[in-house]
């Protein structure tokens, strides 16, 4: 009798553990909540420190009272030549994020003939990447006086000499964007804040951009868009499409939370903290 009782208890424990394993992600997803009445968060990011971002994107964002993240490639001439404007953007509530000093990408990937040999991830070590990324943090601190920072990997590439260099800098950033993927986060429960997929909406219309916002709201998750040129420069999104997106986000600010990636990631961290 005692042996049967022990066996039944073991079976019960196994059943409960299996149930928790199967339902854990769903339970975690259902327990995640955005601030009151918010259906989704939207992170608007702008890479490379381009002139069109200062000339077009930031004035448009300010007009609609929306905050965004600007990932500065610190060797870009616009950083030095227009530093007062970048500093003003930070003072106005926009985030200045780390996009490395020299925008190293892998020259081994398709359509990467533009990658310079001395800035090729295929010949750059993890230690070298970490050194210059931390130096970039120090330079950003000199611009905006802030310590908390997020990072976007140039080209979405994660490996230096075949080794994931992001693992070496995780402790230095609240969150990291790296790798192309779905613009809409499929699950807040499964989201790795140090490997957030991004989508570059090159040439997309305003309607297409707005449809992505609606998709994120339907799932209750997050939308990550990474722009480059706006109405100019390269990998361009038209000024009209950008304006239509911002107008929609502004009109629906009561249910769509548009903010810096740093602020959104910090909120996600607090939701995951033990209660």
From TrEMBL:
It is found in: Secreted. GO terms for biological process: carbohydrate metabolic process. GO terms for cellular component: extracellular region. Residues 40-275 form the NodB homology domain. Keywords: Signal. Residues 1-28 form the signal peptide. Pfam families: Polysacc_deac_1. InterPro entries: Glyco_hydro/deAcase_b/a-brl (IPR011330), NODB_dom (IPR002509), Polysacch_Deacetylase (IPR051398). One of its GO terms (molecular function) is hydrolase activity, acting on carbon-nitrogen (but not peptide) bonds. This is Polysaccharide deacetylase. It comes from Massilia glaciei. The lineage of its organism: Bacteria, Pseudomonadati, Pseudomonadota, Betaproteobacteria, Burkholderiales.
């Amino acid at each position: 009798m005692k042996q049967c009782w022990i066996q039944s208890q073991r079976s019960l424990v196994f059943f409960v553990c299996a149930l928790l394993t199967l339902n854990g992600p769903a339970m975690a997803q259902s327990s995640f909540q955005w601030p009151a009445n918010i259906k989704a968060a939207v992170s608007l990011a702008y890479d490379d420190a381009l002139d069109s971002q200062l000339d077009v994107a930031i004035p448009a964002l300010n007009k609609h009272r929306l905050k965004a993240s600007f990932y500065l490639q610190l060797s870009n001439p616009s950083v030095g030549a227009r530093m007062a404007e970048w500093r003003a953007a930070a003072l106005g509530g926009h985030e200045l994020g780390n996009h490395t000093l020299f925008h190293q990408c892998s020259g081994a990937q398709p359509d990467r003939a533009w990658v310079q040999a001395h800035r090729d991830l295929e010949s750059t070590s993890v230690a070298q990447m970490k050194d210059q990324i931390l130096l970039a943090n120090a330079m950003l601190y000199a611009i905006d006086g802030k310590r908390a920072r997020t990072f976007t990997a140039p080209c979405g590439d994660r490996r230096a000499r075949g080794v994931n260099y992001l693992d070496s800098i995780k402790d230095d950033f609240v969150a990291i964007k790296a790798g192309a993927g779905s613009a809409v986060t499929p699950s807040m429960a499964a989201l790795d804040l140090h490997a957030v997929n991004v989508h570059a909406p090159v040439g997309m219309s305003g309607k297409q951009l707005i449809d992505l916002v609606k998709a994120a709201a339907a799932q209750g998750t997050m939308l990550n868009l990474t722009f480059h040129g706006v109405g100019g420069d390269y990998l361009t999104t038209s000024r009209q499409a950008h304006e239509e997106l911002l107008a929609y986000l502004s009109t629906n600010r009561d249910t769509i939370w548009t903010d810096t990636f740093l602020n959104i990631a910090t909120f996600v961290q607090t939701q995951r903290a033990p209660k």
